[in-house]
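Example (one chain per record):
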Amino acid sequence: MVRCNSYQFWRSFFGGTKPSPGRSEKTASAGVFLIVNFDWEALMEFKRRGSIRITLIAMVVGVTATIVVAFAIVFGSSLVNSVRERGSAVLEAGLRGGASGLRTWLSAKADSIRSYGDVFALEEYEKTSVVFLAAAEARGARDPEIYSLYFGPARSPAKGGVFLDGSGWVPPEDYDWTGRDWYLSAAAARDVSYSEPYIDADTGKLVFTVSMATRKDGTVTGVVGADIFMTTFGQIVEGLKPTPSAVVQLIDAAGLYVTNKDASKVLETDFFSDAGFIDSRQALSSGDIAVLFLDGQHRYVASILIPELDWRLVAYGDLNDILGDLNRVRNLVVGVSAGALILAFILTLLALSAPLRHIRVVVQGISAIAAGGGDLTKVVSVGTRDEIGELAHTFNTFLAYLDDLLRQVHDAADTMDAVSQSARDRSVSISEGMGDSADALDEAIARVRDESQELRRVAEIGESFFGRYRDIQDRLLTQAASVEETAAAMVQISRTMENVAILGKKGQDLAVELDGSARKSAEAVTEVVAIIGDIGKRSEAVASFAGVIAEIAKRTNLLAMNAAIEAAHAGESGKGFAVVAEEIRKLAESSNEETAEIARTVTEIGQTIERGVELSLSAEGDIGAMIGAVEQSRNVSMEISNATSEEARGGEEILKALSIIREANAEVKDMLSAQGADSATVENALRSALEGNERVATSVELQGSEIVSLGTRMRDFSTLMETVAEEANRLSCLMANVTLRDVSR
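Predicted structure:
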């Protein structure tokens, strides 16, 4: 007996050297190796490369971290949006308050201008000029921001208009206020008009103009204007401080500074380029109000429109003024998230310590069984009732099943050894008998093949004979068919000749009728020629009569002309006679024209008659020729009728001869049909014999192949039985190393 250690036992029993697929199936069917396709060798050599403990901790911490990070992102984003919305509201409120102050100041200045406009709208400015100048001087004393108050009438200097200025300024002689921008814009506006700011040349201060047109009965009578210092504007802008670091400026529609601490930049420098907001120009210049948070520059910028001037109040500053303690809150959220992660890690360790300890107990118990050298009496003991306890219980159940299975294998191994030896002896005996049967079958196959060759030669000779016989039969049948076709054609020809004779008789009768009609047509044509000649003579008489009428019309025309001349000589008393003479002259001219038309018509009729005479004479000649042709056709029809009668009689004789030939062909056809049936029977018998012989040869060859294949399988079976015997001996050796449970207790 072969000695086997425990490790070799497990390798040999659960894996070992794997047999071929055929051997594996037969071994499994014998109940020896039930688990042969599993890689038990790899299982026995397993090395742990991971840890459930670490995996579970990583999963819990990962999920917790994901939740915390997601919460931090959502909370941080919501917090930032809330802070920015609040900051945007603060900026909008500050800008709206500043814009409201500027518009209130503008409204007060506009009301002052409207009061002067009402005065000039009621009275002529010449009558109120002294009052206007006094009021302007008083207004200037009360309101130091009004630099100059003036009035320009609708009449230009060239039309006698006089320009009034409260400051005492006298314009030069070529100064025409009606062409100035402030005048034109105010005259076109329905209310107060504001000009662009400018630097006053005398004072060097920033000034803009407020003007309004005065109207009387809807007509512009002049424009009242005031140049106003922008001191209050600057003070209002400087007083705005929406955030601690805010810088507030006033810019015009083109983006130039209107207010700035650096006086050199006023109306000279572009705000967007100077402050670094070029990319935000479009957003800040559109709409009534705009607020932007520029994270890249860490600044904010906002603007609001002052619609009266089309200017904008802008403010910008540090973004921290808006965000405030957002960074501190963000750091607090990060700290809370980190603390939550650490707490989750600690709680995970505490929660997994007990289950992991039980898992280690199961692993240690299974390892002890695996290292026990095939001892199946050991069990894994875990005191829990959870999944780990269920795993230990399932493993113990598997060991019990494996113990029972190995007992059955041990009993089957003893039986297999005896059975395999007996099967091997019988397979050798059967294999030898199969060899003798195969030799005898080879000789029988050779004899059957010789007989098949001889029968095939006889069949080929019969095929040649029957082929020539069928050829002769086909020719005779073709000749009989030709005779039938000839007879049918002769019958058709005979019927055709009869029809021709009938048609010839009808043609003869038709020629006689046509000869009579032609002679009548000739007589009618002769009468037509005579009638046409008489018509020609009468048309000549009509032509001569038309000539007489033409002569009468000519003379009547001459008489009318003479009468007109006499009426002219008669003076006033001859006017009525002149009218009558004119009508007679017109009637004569009309008669002359109608007579000429009649003469042309008669001439055309004469020409037509001559052409008709020529055609009638030609038709008379054609009819004569037709009469001769009809007589000739009648003679030919008579000859055709006689000839067809003779042909019909000859056709009847031919039909009688063909009838005799047709009867002879029918007898030949019946004889050929009988002989063809006999030859077909003989030919089919030869073919059946040949096919039967070939089937016998094929069947014998197949049986020989099956016997050879069966002998081969028997030899393989004998070899397999030897292998089974070897495996049974080896299994007995292995089972000696297995410690099974004692089932007697």
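Caption: The chain has a mean pLDDT of 71.
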